């Protein structure tokens, strides 16, 4: 694969991202691009679209809530 080009297949890095919703909302574009590219996910669109895509891909419902 050539550097700087998107891959068409999902990659599973060693660590799963553990950012909160507010961290994704404040994340700079270069960081969102790097995170998505690390997993082989598309990095096109504007920053709002990329943040929304990253939150949908990496945030799980109730992930930060403790079981009662």
UniProtKB/TrEMBL annotation:
<protein>
    <recommendedName>
        <fullName>DUF7722 domain-containing protein</fullName>
    </recommendedName>
</protein>
<dbReference type="InterPro" id="IPR056139">
    <property type="entry name" value="DUF7722"/>
</dbReference>
<dbReference type="Pfam" id="PF24847">
    <property type="entry name" value="DUF7722"/>
</dbReference>
<feature type="domain" description="DUF7722">
    <location>
        <begin position="16"/>
        <end position="61"/>
    </location>
</feature>
């Amino acid at each position: 694969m050539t550097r700087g080009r998107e891959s068409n297949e999902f990659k599973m890095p060693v660590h799963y991202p553990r950012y909160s919703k507010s961290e994704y909302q404040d994340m700079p574009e270069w960081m969102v691009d790097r995170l998505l590219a690390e997993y082989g996910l598309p990095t096109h669109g504007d920053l709002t679209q990329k943040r929304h895509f990253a939150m949908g891909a990496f945030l799980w419902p109730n992930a930060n809530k403790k079981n009662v």
